[in-house]
Design brief:
Blueprint: H1 6-10, H2 26-37, E1 47-51, H3 57-64, E2 68-73, H4 76-89, E3 93-97, E4 110-116, H5 126-135, E5 136-147, H6 152-161, H7 164-173, H8 185-194, E6 197-205, H9 221-247, E7 256-263
Parallel strand pairs: 1-2, 1-4, 2-3, 4-5
Antiparallel strand pairs: 5-7, 6-7
Helix pairs in contact: 6-9
Length: 265
């Protein structure tokens, strides 16, 4: 059985490219669209767990809506950045270091558990989903956002990314970790149902944004070529996703998979 390399996740950077995503940029609007489609932007006064919060982008956005948000993140550097950003924004968000498979919270603690772009880093999502269900209050909502591996364009993109030279490059630059599992939407739905989540609804979307691109400050011919190449690849990837969104049926069309459910009372 494959085991997650937790040390690799701990060493993930602080998420500097996302710093601008708390302001009115295309990246911010993409994140906002995810929360809107998950039905999380009209909530007030809820206690929310942002599981795998990274540098706090989603959690801070949810806190801005008038909720109390607790973030859990395995990378200490990301926790520090998340708390600094929350303090700067003056919102009710706090992050702490911890393992998603061993959450440091009591049973039935949260009104909502949100987990964005995290579960595909686990070889088996069942243990993490079990923990999310455990700390969720009866009747509480669970919301997930993940890469849509049921989408043929996403699968092709993954194939290209796993070509040895490109994969080595991606890992060296710190844009990903060695932990990545290809899960189709049915695997997430089955894991939720197995752990007492009902009224499961899933959708997919393609908000159209670009991921953070490498900084322009690099010098040297090889670095310039690398930067140019990655920008070309990112834009070709975006075009491929846009075409797939037009021609494929739901939930196979969107690059982003969105799932919601409710814990049994």
């Amino acid at each position: 059985m494959k085991i997650q390399d937790k040390q690799a996740e701990m060493e993930v950077g602080s998420g500097t490219p996302e710093d601008e995503w708390l302001d009115d940029t295309q990246g911010y609007r993409v994140r906002k669209a995810h929360l809107e489609l998950l039905g999380l932007t009209s909530l007030r006064g809820q206690l929310i767990l942002d599981a795998g919060c990274g540098p706090g982008t989603y959690g801070i956005m949810l806190a801005k809506e008038g909720n109390e948000v607790v973030g859990i993140e395995i990378s200490p550097d990301a926790v520090q950045v998340a708390n600094e950003r929350a303090k700067e924004k003056g919102v009710n968000f706090s992050a702490r270091a911890g393992d998603l498979e061993k959450l440091p919270f009591q049973d039935n603690s949260f009104d909502i558990c949100f987990c964005g772009w995290v579960l595909h880093h686990f070889p088996d999502v069942s243990a993490a989903v079990a923990e999310l269900a455990r700390v969720l209050k009866p009747g509480g909502r669970l919301a997930l956002a993940e890469p849509n591996e049921s989408n043929l364009a996403v699968r092709f993109s993954r194939f290209v990314e796993d070509l040895p030279l490109l994969r080595h490059w991606i890992l060296r630059e710190g844009w990903d970790t060695p932990n990545r599992t290809i899960n189709k939407h049915k695997q997430y739905v089955e894991a939720l149902a197995q752990h007492g989540i009902i009224d499961i609804k899933l959708s997919s979307c393609f908000p159209g944004g670009l991921p953070p691109l490498p900084p322009k400050s690099r010098k040297g011919v090889l670095n310039f070529i690398s930067l140019l190449s990655i920008k070309v690849l990112v834009r070709l990837r975006r075009l491929m996703f846009a075409v797939a969104y037009k021609v494929l049926p739901r939930p196979l069309n969107g690059a982003d998979l969105l799932i919601t459910g409710r814990k049994k009372k």
